[in-house]
Design brief:
The protein has 155 residues and is an alpha+beta fold. It is built from six helices and five strands; from the N terminus they run H-H-H-H-H-H-E-E-E-E-E. The radius of gyration is 22 Å and the shape is globular.
Length: 155
């Protein structure tokens, strides 16, 4: 084996190793969305509700949450969110969130692929999905010794 062919083999081996490392990193070993992204997703949900952008708000719901909401409302998410009882209840919640946003009043706790965002005293739960956060429950009230009671949540 000549020195030139040996260098070619080393280069190919290094190229294969690098290609494998890039593939591995791009298929799930990279970190998911961060805490700031979770706060941003919760804010985006409430901003969409406030702007009467039901399509945008519904797009930010996790699939199971959206499905459960549509079954409970017996209508599509976009219609139920703005026209139904949930929309009426979310209006003052959205106002509190917007007021808190102006003060920078927010906190977030991330545990793995789950997040809890507190905006102006309003609790929203999210789950990482792909490279983003989706709302799994919102307008939640803490109850001592029991799970949160949420206006909008999945099963």
């Amino acid at each position: 084996m000549s020195v030139v062919s040996g260098l070619g083999q080393v280069r190919r081996t290094v190229a294969y190793v690098l290609a494998g490392a890039v593939a591995l990193l791009s298929t799930g070993c990279s970190p998911g969305p961060g805490a700031d992204d979770a706060v941003g997703a919760a804010r985006a949900f409430f901003a969409a509700v406030s702007a009467h952008d039901a399509e945008g708000a519904c797009a930010l719901l996790a699939p199971a949450t959206r499905e459960s909401f549509e079954q409970d409302a017996v209508s599509p998410c976009e219609q139920a969110l703005l026209d139904g009882e949930v929309g009426l209840v979310l209006a003052p919640v959205t106002q509190r969130v917007e007021e808190a946003d102006g003060r920078g009043d927010s906190s977030v706790t991330v545990a793995g692929r789950q997040a809890q965002v507190l905006l102006g005293g309003e609790v929203t739960f999210l789950a990482a999905s792909g490279g983003t956060w989706l709302v799994t429950a919102t307008a939640c009230v803490a109850r001592p010794e029991r799970p949160y009671d949420c206006l909008l949540e999945g099963d």
